[in-house]
Amino acid sequence: MTQEPLTLYKLIILHMLSRVDFPLTSAQVSSFILEKEYTNFLTLQQAISELTQSGLITARSVGNRTHLLITPEGRGTLSFFENRISDPIKEEVGAFLRENGMELLNEVSVVGDYYKSTTGEYNAHLAAREKNVTLIEITLSVPTAECAKVICDNWQLRNQEIYQYLTEQLF
Prior knowledge:
This protein is of the alpha+beta class. Helices cover 57% and strands 23% of the residues. It contains six helices and six strands. It has a three-stranded antiparallel beta sheet with strand order 1-3-2, with helices on both faces. The chain has a three-stranded antiparallel beta sheet with strand order 4-5-6.
């Protein structure tokens, strides 16, 4: 593969990450780029890997997701080369972020993960954050992995309702 298309994909990723004030998941970035058919999955993964290795983005595993954040070095690089991204691509990125912004934010702000504890039970760890502030964090001990998975899945769907119920009951 020639370097020029790969460079464009990296710049698109940097541009996307620079336009939000929260991390995007690897799946969210992939969804946009693959939906627009800019490239294929393997090339996209190569671009993300190279951006991470060069320190232009950070990739952090949170539960079963990988959160991507642009670094100051990434912002600097983007400022030098952003003119290589066509205006139509920038407009598509902007439209995607406007149309999906709340959903994208909710996906990275609400975390549900589970693990086996030292007692043999499973802990479902649930959290909701807003602008780097933890709103709620709960760990529930349950007997099976299946039960913990259901709790995590339901947390993703009903976190706002649960948070509202708890605050109404406790205040």
